[in-house]
Structure formats: structure tokens, C-alpha cells
## 1
Amino acid sequence: MANGEPSRGQPGPARQVGWLRLSMLSGALVAASMALLRWSGHGSVSTDDRIVSWWGIALLSVLAEILVVHLEFRRQRFSVTLSEVPIVIGLLMAGPMGLLVGRLVGAAAYLGLGERQSPRKLLVNLSSFLAETSVAIVVFAAVSNGGPSARPSTWVACVLAVIAADLVGFFVVATVVRWHGAPVDLRSIIVAGAITAPVNTSLALVAAILYDNEPAAVLLLAGMASFIVFSYRSYVSLNERHESLSLLYDFTRLVAEAEDPATVLEAIVTQSRTITRADRAEIWLREGAGHVGLRVTDDGVAEMPGDPRDPELVANWLAASPTAARLIARDGEDADARAVAATFGARDCIVVAVTEHGDCVGFIAVIDRVGGRAFTRADLRNLDALVRQAGVALDNGRLIDRVHAEVARREYEAQHDALTGLPNRLRFAEEVDSALATSEGAPVAVALMDLDGFKDVNDTLGHEFGDDLLVEIGRRLGRAVDADTTVARLGGDEFAIVLRHVAPIDGAADAGMVARLRALRAIVAQPITIAGMRIEVGASVGVAVSPADGDAVSLLLQRAETAMYGAKAGIGDGVARYEAGRDHNSRRRLTLANELRRAIAEHEILVTYQPKALAAEGRIVGTEALVRWRHPELGVVFPDEFIPIAERSGIINELTSYVLRTAVAEATHWAGLGRRWGVSVNLSMRNLLDRDLTESVRQVLAESGLDPASLTLEITETNVMSDAARSIEILDGLAALGVRLSIDDFGTGYSSLAYLQQLPVHEVKIDKSFVMPMTTNPSSAVLVGSIIDLGHNLGLRVVAEGVEDRATWNRLAGLGCDVIQGYFVGRPMPPGDLDHWHDELALSGRLRGGLELHAP
């Protein structure tokens, strides 16, 4: 019997034929077969002794299915079997029921155990064999007159019976194939069957005739037939291998001569399909952020359409074993493999990874060998060899392009910052040199911008967060400048700017230049939201102008840096011009950084105390510890100058510990005198990142014996919000010690209301920027009153700082503020002066007057 399946064109959606439809077909075949046999009188089991038993027919049926020869012609595949032989032998020697039972048992054994067909396929095939055999029995009985096998009339009956059986089989196959949505060329199949059926029938008749005359002669015929079958199968296999080798050779020569990667891709996908005799082939490769793909079918080569998600699924599946070709089937046991086969709409396919430096960058897939025949291990090896050749060809085709791209990339990277994409220090120096060379004596300004507080962002939120911040600032600056301005990133949080066409007036920078720099500074200061967090950073800008401040890049940058540190110290309101008279600023800062640790050890850091009073009574209830540095050469250095240095140099924890021990010791002294004055100590953002802070405070309190409630630690809301989760954890530990916690500068940070209820705080301090104008600005008074009400509603004590006059004090007392602090109450004083000041107030009775209290 010959059956075949033509190749399919473009892949379509595979239809799954349901159990109900197949069951109905199988039931109809079984019912028709039983009815036909009963009608013809062959429906009962015969007791006649037959020459060949049913198990002999079963064995012949298995051998007939095993001895199959596959032929391919014009991209159609035909499977030629000897299935007609057991039918003819059974008709002549086994009787109707022996033939029927033997053929069904043999088919079930081969298809179920040998090919392991699914129950659905097995049901249809067995019902088809039943129908074929039943029709053959009825036709043979109707035509034959029961004569011996050597009579021509018996030959004709056998041929007609076999043809009828084959037609039934062709009908069943065509029906199921059409249900799956595939076309069937019935004419080609019937023509092929018309050739093979008589040949196989003749072979069976010869065997029967020999058996009737000399049974042993059948062995000679079987041996000769087996030799012919195996010889032809070997010839077909050898021919396929020869064709595959020829195709590989042609492909190797083609890709070796090709220089265009597109030509190589087309050759790869075309030869992959040809060498494996596949219905179609596809190739997919990653190209930057996208992909390229080609598909080849009988209609030719076309670009692969569609979303790259399915190819990505295949590539990801291959990545587990990128060096091996994978043969997969839709009905295989591996769920991932079945999903891959489903993406191609394939019965079975071979997928091979295309690798580059060991990484999977794409794949080549051949889908559904023509005619339904499964791919073999030889196909797997051939495709793997072809892909290896393809990988070399692709590498060669892309090598020159990559060299050019790499050269361009390195040239770009050598002159640009990798993070922001802005020009780097090298490129900036070239820009300044070019500006100086082409200025024809006109001034050129070089500005250096340094971010304020960037180190704190990096330390608290991490370098990745800081990098995102720098990228956004670089993007803003790059968009804001014109063709006469170049912005570069020199490293860290430093950005450099060169301004051309600057016109100095009387030795000072042109007002237009300053305005341009202020505009850039304002752009940087705008809030930035990263990962859902709102960040505000400032910037300090220093500028040097040629030729007055120098005529070389290095000198202009150095002097711009000096001016920038002057801007950080408050000169120029954020934008400072280089002035030779202030060039000592950088040396001063370096001196302070180098000597701060020594100053702590030698008690040059002076702790002063500013008193706090009850707003309603005027009675002193506490103090705030403030620090000054009495430098032996530079004089008094205020905390606004050396605290940032301490934070940047990592000395802040030592400084805080020194102030904490000094303040607690003084509070213990006051407690011994009967003065129940609490003391407040400020914590910086870096202190809140110190997990040893709670233990350090506990030790200080334990050594001094001071009531923990007498110590207040002041934190700013901005510091807490920088790393809220970690800060809250540390604050909870401090609150557990009994220490009081206060939010300083309340209202100037962000997210206050969102976190206020979560923080274990006891008081809030209203920032002086709200308090000082409240007697002249109604809005400030309303805001202060709202904060007081909010604090009281949350059960917190409210402290107002910046009380400079009696009117402010009166207004705060009227609003219900609990505690006030400011110069009108008292200036920061050393502990001895504070004691003396308080004693004088007590002797004069002014403490009892409450509202009459003010600093001497």
C-alpha cells in the first residue's frame, strides 16, 4: 500500500480534531464493517481448520509495517508498505475471521507498542483496518468461486479485494487529514496505490502458489523480498546522505564567498530547509534591541512577521543547552518543548541555537518534514553541521561592521561620560582650548558646578539612586544649553560649563553670563522624582573668565573650583566669580578637614547652651546644645562651615559622641543643683545610619545616671525621609530607652504628615523661617497656628524657635505654643555663663514675670 501527504505551504493554525468527531468516525467504520460481514455471511467465527492461523497473520502484519520504504517525489513523500501481503495470504489461507483477528492484533501491537500512538490515533487506525479487511473479505468472497490460488480467477479476486481495501483506507486518511485543515492530493495517492497494490498482491500470490506446491520455497521468496527491501532502503539512505553532503559543500562554498550578511542569512535558511527536506525553515537573530527573521517555504523567502515574543521563548528555551541541536515534537513529554513546537504550529521540528561567544543570539528551525515523515538523527547532525558553518559565516560577515562600530564606540567613549553621555574631562578640555583659540581675545568663561547634598543622597539611598539623579541632572543641563555653551561631567557630582562670547564689564563678569549660570542652577534645583521619591538638590557654581583669570584650561578650572567653594560658603548667592583675594578658601577648608579630629580630642570644640522657656510662664525648662570651634589660628568657626566637613570626612559620629557626652554631663550637673533642665542634642543624617547609635546613647546615660527623659535628640524630617525605614528602626530603639525625640525645622522638609504618626517623637520644633515673620505676615501666623494645632492633636509638645521679640512671644503664647526658644529668651552661652545668667534672673525676680524675660 502507498500513502502520502503533500507538503504544506505557509503554516496555518493547527486544528485539533475532537474526540467526539473521531469517535463517531470510528464507530461508523466499526458498525459498517460488522453489518457488511453479517450481510455477507462472514459475521460468525469459522471452525474450519485453516493453513495459517490468526497469529501468523498478525506476525505478517507486523513485518509488513516494519518493512516500509519511503519515497519522495516533487516534495511529496510516499510510504510503500507490504500491507497487502498479509491480506492476500489471509484471504487464501487463514479464512475471514482469522484474517480479521490477525490483522487487528498485528496492527494494534505495532501501532500501540512499536510506534506508541496516542489512543486517539490508535482508535482511528484500528477501525480503519477493520473496515479495510471487512471490505476485502466481502469483495473476495463475491468475486472468487473458491478455486485454488493458482487459478487466474483467484488472482483477479485478490487484486480487486486489495484495491477495495486500499480505497477504504485512502478515504479514512483523507477525511482525517481534511479535518486537520491540510489539503490532500487524492489523485497522486490513488495513482501510487494503483501501482503498488498489484505488485504486493502478485508477491503474495506467488508465495501462496509456492506454498501449495513446495512450502519450503516460500523461504527463498521471503529472503529475496527482504533483500530487495533492505537494499533499496540502504540505497535511499545512502542517496540522502550523499545529497546532504553535496548541499553542505555547496553551502560552505556559498557562504565563504558571500560578504553581505543578508545573503548569508538567506542561504542559511534556504539550505536548512533543503538539506532536511523540511516543509519550511525559519531563522531568527537578535539585532540590537530588535530582531531579524526569515522564513522559507515553497513560495520563496520572506521576512518573518510578528512580535518577537515567540522567538524569544524559543531562544530562552535553547539557552539552557545552546551548543546542541534539539529534536522536538508537539506530542513529546517535555512541556517546554511542546510549547516551542506549538509556536511553530509543527508536528515535529529541529531547532538549533545560533551562538556568539557562547551566548545564544538566535536559532534556526526546520519544521515538518515533507509528507509527514519524522526527522531523523541524520537530519539533526546535518543541520547542526550547517549551523556551525553558518555561525562562522555570520561572524565573518559582521566582523568588518563590528570593527567600524567598535572604533566609533571607543572614540565616543573616550570623549564622553559613560553615565550621562555628556562630554567628559578630556572632551571638555578640547572644547575650552578650541574656544580660547577661536575667541580672538574675547573672554571665555569656565564654570564649575558642584551639587549640594549629593553625598548624602549616595550614602543614604545608594549609588544606583545617585546615578539616576546624575543622569537626570545631566539630561536637564544638556537640554538647557545652546550652541555657544558646552556642559560636561568631570566626575562625581561635578559638572563643567564653558560659555563663549562673554563680555566683561569693569573686570566683573557680564550680568548676562551670571544670569545664564543662575538659570542653569535653577534648573538643577527643581525637584526630581526617582523611584517614587521626591528629591531636591542644590548646586554651587564658581566661574573664572579668560584672560583675566587665566589663559589655560587647567588654571581656569582650578580657579573656577576655588570660586565654587566660595559659593558653597555663601558668596554670590550660589554663583560666585573667582576673586584672587578669596583664594584662601580652599586652603581653609582643607585645613579644617585635617584638624577637626584633633580639635575634638583637644577640646577645641566648645559646647554652648541656648535656653528654652515655657511660653505661658517664662520658666526655663531646658536648653539646646550648640557647638563652636575655637581654632587657634582661624578664630571662631561656626557649625555651618565645619559640620558639612565633618559629614563629608566621616568624622560626624565622633563629633556627635563628643557633644552628646558633654551635654549629658552638664545636664547631670544641673540636676544635682535641683535644676530640672533637659538638654537637646542635634543628630545629623549620617548619625541616623549608625546602627551603634542606640547602644552609644544607652552607655552615656548609664555612665551619667541622667534620667533618659531629660535628654532630647533633635532630628530633621528631611534626614528621616532620606531612609525612612532604617531611620524609624533606630528611632524606635532610642525611644525605647526613654529618650525624648524632636523633629527640628518642622515644615521645611517633605512627607512630614505621611510619616509623622509612624515616628516615635515627642515634640516638633517650628522652623524660625515661619516664626520670625508671623507678627508682620498673617499667612505665617496662620501656618504656625496650624502646626501648633496639628502637634497638639497628635499629642506632641510644640517648640517655636527664632523668637526675637516680645510681640512674637505673646502671639505664640496666645496660640497655645508650649515652649519658645530664641535670642529674646537667651543667646547660646557656655555652661558657666548660663548658670550665672539664670541666677541673676532668679535674684531679680524676673523669672516670675514670665513675659519680661529676655537675654541680657
## 2
Amino acid sequence: MNVNKLFPRLTIRLKLTIAFALLSMVPLLAVAGLATRVTLRNVRTLTESTLRHDLDMARARTERALQEVEQDLAFVAGTVLGPRLMQDSETGAEPLESVATDFLALSPTLFRLLAVRADGEIIFATSSDLVDSLPRESSGARAAFLYSYLAASIEPGKRMAIPVELRSGTDEAGPFVTTPAIAVLEPIRNEGGELLGVIVGEAYASRLFAGVDQGSPSLLATTGVVAGNGLLLHHSERKQDWTSLLASRSDANLEDDLSASGAAAVLSGEAGTLRIPDDRVVSYVPLRLAGSGIGPLTLYRVVRASALGASVRRLRTVALGGGAVLFLMVLGLAMLAARQFTGPIYTLRQGVRRLASGESDVGVDVETNDELEDLAHDFSAMAVLLSDHRNRLEELVEERTRALQEAHSKLADILEYSADAIVGLDLEGRVRLWNRGAESLFGYSVPEATGQRVDGLLTPESADSAVERAVIQREMKRHGAVVNLQTHRTPKDGPAFPVSLTQAPIRDSDGNPVGYSLIIRDTRTQARLEEQMRRSERLATVSVMAAGLAHELKNPLAIIGNRVEWMLRESNESCHECGLGQDLEVVSEHTSRLVDLTRDLLSFGREADDARGPVLLSDVCSRVAGLLDRTFAARQLTLETDLASDLQVLEGSEPEIETICMNLLMNAADATPSGGTVTMEVRRSQFGDSLELEVRDTGPGVPVELRRRIFEPFFTTKGKLGGTGLGLPLCRSIAERHGGTIAMESGEGYGSRFVVSFPLPAMADEWNGQGY
């Protein structure tokens, strides 16, 4: 057993001092504690005995006082008032009243005598000279009736004592005066047992219970009398004047004086002594008044427990004083001895502190002619070696720290400024790291994202998300990471977009996973490029096919058109009235249509050979609008134009731009019902770097399911006799050859809107200066 472990972190000097103090003080404290305990037990026993003795004496005095009242009443009833009721006559009333009055003067407790017939009539009433005013209510019919009624319930040979409160002063001169009293009832019966009346003796409650407060002068205690329902009838401090003898009218409760547990013990009906929680001792005894109607009463006394230990405290004070003097003496000797023993140890400790603080010269000089001196020499030699080794380590640490800081700074910059979203997760999938790329990509700030589950933050709960999580968990178990998983994630504001996801575990030095790294790359641009590449490849294939088909059809169509023209001319000359000419005109019309189709195919499939130059977009659009004015009027359509005249010129092919304008206006006319309006507007773009041609109609609009196909070659909604399906693809091809774009907006019920954007060339200012 290591004795040092019995102490907390203390110095050796303090440990030695404590050891000496314990060796000297433990026996003294043990003897003092034992003596104090025995003394306290004896004082407590003596006090409890005194309390019980005082209670027994108080109970005896009260019971004796009540017995004296009963004996006096029995004497008066038997010798004076009883015969009066039996004779039922007023003969000799004055001598009887004189005898009763003299008897009351001799009784210390009784103050009134009454004789009441069985029917409640008072035939005799007298009181002592000690009563200042006769309580009128007790002499009334109500009190007489109560006494006669209770007398009927008393068994033969028995009497009854009941609490009453007598009032006087019922006139207007002053308030009521209440006198608590004990009324003792002595029934008078004839030989046949018939009730003739009752003799009543009323005694002062304050005199009857005067003995309850008497006790030993040396023991200061609080006395109380409590009824069976817990209400106080008397209390030496809180209810001293016996103002209310009836428990139902008392406003003082036993639990207010004692605790709940103490009140329950006092009301148990048994005698005893106990200690209650507020450092008090209570002794109680039942007050049994045989044959009374008062009910069970309990007499109790309370004394402070602190009053019991005065002698113990004096003994304890003397013992502690002597112990303190002895303790100081031992402490002084212990400190003197400890200083001699521990001086070299403190010297070595100071040397260790200097060595730890970086000092090079830390030799210690100790002369004790024992092992401590040898330890000091060894420490000095070790300090020299440690100082040299520490210098080498500091140089190495400084070099490695610089390298680590540089690497950390580079990694932090890469992480913070990466365009990809780099997220650090804990084992539960909650965000712990959120770089700027993640903020820019998903719209959540660092405080908003930190602590959130990444699945709930970026992936709405659905069946697909549950399947995806299962796939990620399976891949993590199989391969330890998930690399370039093509999926979708949802930002804070906006729809989900395609991303590439890479997830790998983060492990500590022992190889245990402590979290996950998540790299999310936006693949929307890549997806658009792939879509454009696929569309370009498809358009290239269609262009090649269209060009080949146009070349194959061009010469046969030219020959057919020539022959049809000669045949139509001959038919008009030779057979003007026959129907052959009309048929030939139909063939000629469809042949012209096929020629236009081959021309569109050639324009769509290869670069145009037209020479490029400055083009005034407003003039071109105005000229095309003038050509189509009659066409629109024939269809009962309104063509509105808003062509800015102060625009810069474009670099491009004027015929091709005319083709765009012509196709957009004819498509708008085909889509607009009679009475509708087609609007063409030419304007400068918002940023001033391009010109925009806008054509909008008031038709039904393009259905949602067809909007993605309107620029596909040969796709048309005009039916078999409508267009070729190359108008809009040709417009887009021409716009792209001019470095521009074409876009469409449409909604069912409010028409379509096509906007073609042409970039302005760098030479536009020079051309404008030359008069274009």
C-alpha cells in the first residue's frame, strides 16, 4: 500500500506536517468525541424524561380539575337542585339560590349553575360574583333546550362534559363578549328512570386547563392542546387566551406548529417523544377526560434541540482549545523538520524548472553527504546532454514546421478556391466543412450548411434518392470509395442539375474512419457540350444527306420544269380550251416547289457562296415586309413593324438575312388566325454589342411537348401540304454562320416570340462612317 496515494497533490513539507498533526490529534479527537456523545445522550434522555414528567403532571392537574367540577356538581344536584326538580315547586327557592351562590363562591372553577326541566324550561339559574355580566344567551331558551336535549342521551348514572362558548353584551352598547367554558351536565331522573331535567354547571375553560402550561422552570418549552382534527385549542405562544374552545372555530393548525410527520405522530392517540426536522424535540400525551363530549385531546410540549447541548458545547470548546494549542506546537516542529529534510529536493526542483525553461547552465550544488548529493551530480551531467539534444530538436522542429505550414497553406488555398464543391462530413453525414465552391454552386452559406445532413440539404427525399443512397453505401463497402457518380443535386434556389460525385472516407492515424470527403462537380456545361456535339453530328449527317439529295434532284427537276413549260406553251397555242393546260400548271407549280426545296437543302447543307458585306438590317426587314404586305392583307392579318433607323450595320449576307426574315414572318402568318397581328421589331441589344430581330404573333403558341423539336430538320406541324420543315433549321444555320443565335419563347394561348441576335462587327464604325 502506497501511503502517498492517501493524500492529494501536496508538497512533502505539507505531508510531513499533516502526518505529525494526525498522530497527535487523532487520539484526542477520539476521546473528546466519545465523551461528547455520551454527555449528549444523557442530556437528551434527562430532557425527554423531564418533558414526559411535565406532561403527565399537566394531564393529572387537568383531569383532577374536571373531576372536582363533576364532584361539586354532583353534590349540588344531589342536595340542592335535584330535589327542586323532583318537587317541581318553587317553594324555598330563595334559600336554595342562597346555598348555590355560596357554593359557587367556594368553587375555583365553576361560575354558573342551572336547573333545566326536561322540556327546556329554566327553573333556576345563579352565577358567582366573579362573573361581571351574566351571559345572556346561555340563559335563553336555546341553551336550555340544548342542555335538555343532550341530557336525554346520557345513560343513567353518567354525566357529560361539553365545550361551549357563552356570549354576552348583545345590546347596542358594545360588541359580543365570548367566554369559552366547559358545561358539565348531571341528568335528574325519577325512580322509573324518566328524565325530569338536568343540572348544569359551567366552568371556565381557562381555569380548567390552567395546569397545562405549568412545568419545570429549567426547561423552556412550548405547550399546546390540540383536538383530534389537528386544530389547536390552546398554544402557549400562538393561542394563549382560550378565545375559542370549539376546534371548528380555531384558525391555528397543528401542522403550522410542527411538521407533517410530527403532526401525524401527535394525533396518533399514543404517548411518545420524537425529533422533528427543524431541530426540535416534541413530547406528547393523550388527555383523556372520561365521560366528556369534548372528544380526544392531546397535550404536547416542544423544546429546541439546541438547548440540550449547552454543556456539550462547553466541553467541546475546552477540548478544541486544548487540541488547537497542541496542534500548533506539533505543526511548528513538523515544519522545522520538514524544511531540513526537503531543502535539497527543492533545490533540485528549481534546477529542473530552469532546464525546462531553456536555460543551458542548470548545475545544482547540494551538500548533504548522502544519496541526494549523488542525485544532484547526476542531474547536472544529464542537464548538459539534454541541453545539446534540445537545441538539435528545436532546429529540426522549426524546419519541419515551416514545411508543414507551406503545405497546409497550399492545401487550404486549393480547398477554399476550388470551383468544385468540397464538403467534409462526419460519420453521421453532417456537414463539417463547406468551401467557397460549395457556397457558389448550391447557394448555402457556411453557417446555413454546417451541422446539416448533406442528404437532406442537397437531395429531396424520394424513392430515387433512397436507391441512390443504397448504391453509394454498397460501393463504399465494396471499393472503399465512390468515384465520378453521375447524379443530380438540388441547390437552395432552383431546380436540380447534373453533377459528378466522388466520396471517400477520412481516416485517423490508426486507420479508423472519422468522416468522409465529398467532391461535387457541376456537369451542366459538359452536358450542354455533349448535347451540342450530338446535335452537330446529327445536323452534319443531315446536311450531307440533304446536299447529296439536292444535287441528285436539281438536274432532273430542271429538265422536268423545262419540259412542262414547253408543254404548257404548246397546249395554250394548240388547245386553248381543253383542260390539259390547267393540269400542266399544277405540275409546274409542284415542280417549282421541289426546286425551292432543293435550293433550301443546298443552303442548309453547305456554306453559302454569297459575298459578305455591310448589311442594313432595318432596310432588309422593311423590304421583306413590303413584299409580304399583300399576303398578310389577303389573310386578314395585321403586320406591324418597329424598325429602328439609327442602327449600326452588320457584316453578313443580305440574301441570307432576307431568308431569315421571310421564313419567320411566313411562319408567324401561318400560326396566326384571321384578325390576328404579327409584329416585327429591330433594335439594339441591352448591352449594345449586337442587333436583335424579333418576330412575334398572337397565335395559339407552340405546345410544350413540341418546343424542343421545332429546330429539327424536316419537322413541321403544317401537314402534308404545308412547309418542308427546313425553315427554322435554315434560320438557325444562317444565324450561326453569322455568329448569332436564335431563341424562341412561347406559351399556349398567347403566341410565339422568335428573337435573332446578330453580333456587331469590329468594322461597323468604319462602314457607318462611309455612308452605309
## 3
Amino acid sequence: MIMRNVLIFILIILNYFEILFSKTLPDNYHYDTEQNILSISGIVDNNLYNLDSIKTIYLNFEESNWFQLLANNRPTEKDLTATLIYDGVTYNGVGVRFRGETSYMMTVMSQKKSFNISIDFSDSNQRLAGYKTLNLNNCFQDPSFMKEVLFHYLINEYIPAPKANFVKLVINGQNWGLYSNVQQINKKYYSEWFLDNQGTSWRAKFPDTSTAKQPGQPNFGAGFCSLNYLGDDPLIYTRYYTLKSTTMESPWDNLVNACYKLSILPIELMYDSLQYYIDVDRSLWHIACENVFTDEDGYINKGGSDYYAYYDDATGRIHPIEYDGNSTFLINKINQSIFFRETDKKYILINRLLSNPALKQRYIAHIRTILKNTLIEGKINPLIDKFKSLIENEVINDNKKIYSYQQFLNSINELKNFVKNRRSFILNVPMIVSNPPTITEVKHISRNGINLNLSANEPITIQAKVQSESGIKSVFLYLGTSLSGTFKKVELLDDGLNSDNEPNDGIYAITIPGFPAGTYIRYYIEAISNNNFFTSAYSPEKAEHNVYLLLVENKVEQNPDVVINELMAANTKTVADPQGQYDDWIELFNRSLKDVDLAGMYLSDKIDNPKKWKFPTNTILKAGEYLIVWADENSKDTPGLHTNFKLSADGECLLLVNKDEHSNTILDSVNFGLQDKDISYGRYPNGFGNFYKMNPTPGAYNENYLSIEYFNLLSNFQLMEIFPNPADKDLNVHIKTDKVGICNIEIYNLLGQLIHSHSLHTFPESTTQYNWNRSDFSGYKVQPGTYLIKFEFMGKILTKVLILL
């Protein structure tokens, strides 16, 4: 029992970040364990949005006059049903319609229209590579065919941008040519970029039903849907923004409030106060990306067309979202000022933010980072050449393309000229070439050591080495205590009195009080030179959505009386709650000989929010008894215990947390993966063993298990035993299979190093035995501790934990 609890403790500590990141962080959140940096940037998709090949999408309509039907349906955006084939898989009943406005209206003489394809049109559960919507764009205003793909690929290092690649479209057997395939902005998109996709999404354009839209006039307008304050009445905003999705009762109030704060807060509070309503730093990155690459269809030009606004419910803030990238890399805008729209109050986001001198320098620092890492001939030109090589034959064979092959070749050269000349122009801006400070040797120091996680409530010192030829005006720490959201700003000093070593030695530091267990601390450094511009620099340089991250570790109970014994995250018919609903459930078991009062304890599915749901008073779990808690977000005054969260059938972490006030002691936890319908996940042996998939026994003893490992190996393994475990010297393995073959056995330490391997011949009619002791581990000095043992047979792999005493 002691060794088992030690193992649980070890694994929880080793996998803290793994548990959180693998189950709860969005796809585009990345944690670098060596540098302690959490970054938010797009990832390369090797499936639907693969950039190394061109896949073909086949659409088949039953109607021979499908083109005319789609044209007739365009005003109402009604879908026409079709069959889609992609990568050898057939998707029946997809919905197809024409999409786009200028790309449709300005191509009257061409059949090369843009398409919206709803994979889930007839079947709400149908997905293509996990996606339910495809947007195929006809590359209008882009003879290179690649601007949108290139632009989104480059800027998703800094801001949320849709994935995009190239596809070939064949309709009813006829080649319809090359298209850019651009990700739909919907809940799946937001779940890839934000901790919560339950917010509100608007497209900044007049709704088709808007009374503000004049006949023959465009359905956008600077000064209206540019985050301008139009008054307190939400109905006014419904005329200028198109609501795309929401889960909130009064979504427009959040937009109105953000616009109001942007318009009335004093310039000097454009960061400190506005950050609670609008993500100020991401807005600056957004403006910088659009400006550097001269985006004509976005906030900085049309001021209300082809950008989205997203209210992130997790942080209570509005974010601008990039949308349309085909009108970029414009030769006629190479000399566009990086301060474009700065004095135009219709473009209020640019006007107000750049009116603040410190935010203007932050904006300049972001452009400097883009120049350093992205707007470089050595980076972009090879990408252009790669895309040209990939798509050129498809361009040649595209008989419906809007532009000629010669225009395609000319546009490739224009793209390369743009990169060269745009970079040259920006590098002539005095603020850009003004030398910024350098920030190095950023670290946090605690009693545990340098750049290590913290214990609860212990002070932490943060240091950075900062240098500048013109001297340092000031150095600031931006500190956040969650995985996203706002920051507090405090000054770091170099006076020898703030844990900064010697006075004036370039080491700036501050010591701050400790934080409760379970807190995730994000921070970054801002340094300001003492020159004419007060030039700024940041570490990490892509702050504030790249940050240093550390964890205040939770305490872990060694031998709790009450444990999580069983759970079900996909209950469709197994057991109903007191209201007759088949909801997720959690079973607790009191394995002690005494009654336990659960009042004041917590259940949670978030490590960074361990006190998510609190047990009510008079919740007594008697010795040896079970308790069912319904995880159904129905914590109102109804019979039974109902949490304020649900369990994810895709997998997540579940915590049982003690009632201590000043720290978060984890009594028990389970990290589970993908769950099957009406199959539970529970301990075997009951109350003490590991977790397995099993036939559900809610409120009763767990009698057997149906582990995924067991089922995967059932056709090969008839017997698998390891004993003793924990082991002192000798270790025994018994294996019996249903086939003749070779079983490979490997043992690894927790650093992933292979320390022993052996191969066994197995036979179905007999049990194969293997015995060894520590002397068999040649070349490796075996220490007491935790190891992983892996068995591989007939392509199946099983891993077990091994304890050596």
C-alpha cells in the first residue's frame, strides 16, 4: 500500500503539465519544458490542411443544372445536397452553396465560384477529418493562387488565423480547378485557440437584413462595425454586426461595453484598464500583422469587413480575429505607413491604442519581431517556391481559373518583390531601427531552486538581465495567475535591495508573495530604453501570448480515506439520475473504517481550478459505502448531488480535493482518455487498484474489468502476469498466447532510457516463463524506484508500472 501511494505521488508530480495540457489545453497552446515557455501559435496540420500535397475533393450532384440551382439559392444561402468523396471516403448528404460577395459578384463571366460545403448538412454527426464545414475559395484578386494560404501560415505564429491549404475540386467528373481551402471560423476553430469556445462570435459586417444598409452600397463601414461606440442600446449594434454564434442570454451587452470602454477610458489607461474588456496586446499584434502584409480586406482598411470579433467568456474580453487573406502582399501598398489610420477616429482601435506612447512602442516592438522572424526573403521566398512547385501543374490544367498562367508567373515575382521592398520600407522608419534593450537570463527563483515549480504560498524572486546602449528607463514584470487573461504590472529594480544582486549591475529583480497551490503563474518582462522614443523590448519576444509559466504544486494526500472509484462520461442508458436523465456520474468510495464528512471538499475537472464544485453540508459517506455524484451542470436545488461541470467523453482529469482553506490538497485524481458509451472507468481491485474500462457498477463493488489493453490483446494474449510487484531481486513473467510468436520485453526508467530488453518465444499450448534479477541489467546500475515495462507481441503493445525496492 505504501509503495502504491508513493507511485501515485510520483506520477502526479511528473505528469502535472502533461495531465493539464493533454486534456484541457487547446491545440494551439504549446509548453516548452526546457524554457518554461507557454506559447500560443498555429500548428501544422498534416491531415485536411496539409501543405505538402494537393488532395482532390469530388462533388457529385444528382441535378444536371446544379450550377443554376446554386445561383438561384445564393440570396437565401440555401444548400443543395451532394455527395462528397475525399481521400477515398464517401460523405453522403453534404450541403453545398456559393459563398463570398465580391469574389462572386466580380466574377460574373466565370464559373469559378467559391463554395461553402456543410459536411454535417444531413447528418449532424458527420465530420471530415474532424471538421464539419469546408470553405473553398476561388482566389479572386490573387493571380498567385497562394496569398491567402501564405498569409495565414505566416501570421498564425502571432495571432489566431484560420488554417488554409490547396485542394483540387472535381464536380460531376469535371475539373473545376485549384482552390484555397480555408478553415471555417466556428466553435471548433475557437476551441483550438481559446480555453473556452462558449463565447460569442460576430462578423464585422452589416447583416443582410440591416436597415442601415443602403441599396447598392457595401455591407460594411468604418465607424460603424470597427468597435466604435454607437450608444447604449444593443439594438443599434445588431444593424452593423452579424451575430454568428453565442451561448449567452445577452451577448450584445458585452460588445457594447467593450466599445464603450474603448471610447471613454483615458489614453494613459489604454492598457491597465482596457485589458479587462479587450485583449489589448492581441489587438496590437492583429493590427501589426494586417499592416505589415497590407491586408486590404480587414480591420485596417475597410474597418468593418472581413474580420471577426470574439467575446471570450473565460476571460471576459473581446478579441479581433483574422478572417480574409486573399487581398494581401499588395505591390501598390509597399509604402503604406506602419501608422496607417493612427489619426482616423473611425478606426478607433488603432486610433486609441496608438495614442498611448507605451502601447505605440509595444506595437513597434511587435512589428520588429515580425521583421526579425517572418518578413525575411530567406524565409518567405522558399515558401513561395514550395507553393509554386506544388500548385503550378494544377494552375496550368485549371480551365476555369480567373487569371492566366502568365499572370500567375508574374504574381510570383510580385510576391517576392513585395517581401524585399516592404521590408526595406519599414526598416527606414526611425522608431523601428531605434535599438531596443536586450533581455537575457530571465529566471524565477524559489526555495526549490531556479526555474522549478513552487510550493504553496512560498515567495518567488523573478530576475532578468537587461542592457541598452542608451541606458534603461525602466523594467516591468507582467504577472498573471491563470492560463489566460489579464496581467498585473509591477516594476523590477536594480538597486541591490530587491534580490537583484549588486546595484547597477544590469540584474533587475523583484520578490513577490506566494500563491495558493494549483495556481498557474504566467509572466513576461518589458524593458524600456532611455532614448528619445523609449524603445521597448519583451521577453519572450512574442509576449504577451508567449509567456514564462510555472506551477504552484498541489499537495497530494498519501493514503486518503475516500477515493474516486468509478466514473462514466458517456451515460446513455446505464443509470438515470433522480430527475430521470442519463447524465455523467462519479462514484466515490469510503475505503476506511470510519465515516467521513465530505462537506467542504471539492470535485473538479480543472487542475487550475481545483475548487470548482463544493460538497454541501451534511454530506456523510459512511465507512465502506459508495456515493454517486451527477456531473451534469445541474447544481440547482434538485434531489441528488449535481456538479457544475460535466465529464468529457474525449477524456480529461478528475480531482477530489480536501477542504483545507489555504491550499489545495488532492485526495485523489484520475486522468482518463476517450470513453465509450455506457462503459465505465473504475478501480480494480475495488477501491485500491488501477483504473480500467469495465461493466458499470454504480454504487456497488467493482467486480471485473474490461480494459482497453485487455481487449486489444485478447486475440493474442491469454495470460500476462508479473510478480512480485513491487520486486526486490527476482522478477517473474508468465505469458501465454493463442499464436506462436516472439514477445519483446523492454524496461525503461522514468527518463525514457532503455535499461533492459529480452525476447521470448511463446506458444498457445503452454505458458512461457521468464525470470531475472538485477544482475541481468548489464551496463546499468539499477536503483530502487519506478520503472515502465513494455510488452510487444504481434503488433500489440502493453505497458505496466514496475516498482523495484
